[in-house]
Amino acid sequence: MTAEAVRYINNEPALNDGLQADLERLVCGECDAEYRVHYSSSESGRLGDRRYLAAERITAEHPIHSRAILV
Question: Fewest 10 Å CB contacts: which of 4, 6, 18, 19?
Fold first, then answer.
């Protein structure tokens, strides 16, 4: 039961966590910091919820964006 938003720089993940990567890009509402939700197979049914939480936390974290945010 793992899901996290992983920062992408130059279309490459900043962290190799071995999880599945969502194809939908999430971008900070204040800058161009890009993230994607990485998730375990048990979280696939809740991916929409995880995207929503990740988007909120990514913008709230601005301007200091970490490599990964647990969602």
Answer: 18
Please, what are the averages of pLDDT over each run of 10 residues along the chain (71 residues)? Answer: 93 95 97 97 94 97 96 94
Cα angle 30, 60, 55; round to 5: 80
pLDDT on residue 9:
96
Instruction: Write out the E strands in 1-71.
Output: 3-9, 12-13, 20-21, 26-27, 34-39, 68-70
* Dist CA 32 CA 17 (whole Å): 23
Q: b/e string for 31-64 if b means 16 or more Cβ within 10 A?
A: eebbbbbbbeeebeeeeeebbebbbebbeebeee
> What pLDDT score was predicted for residue 40?
95
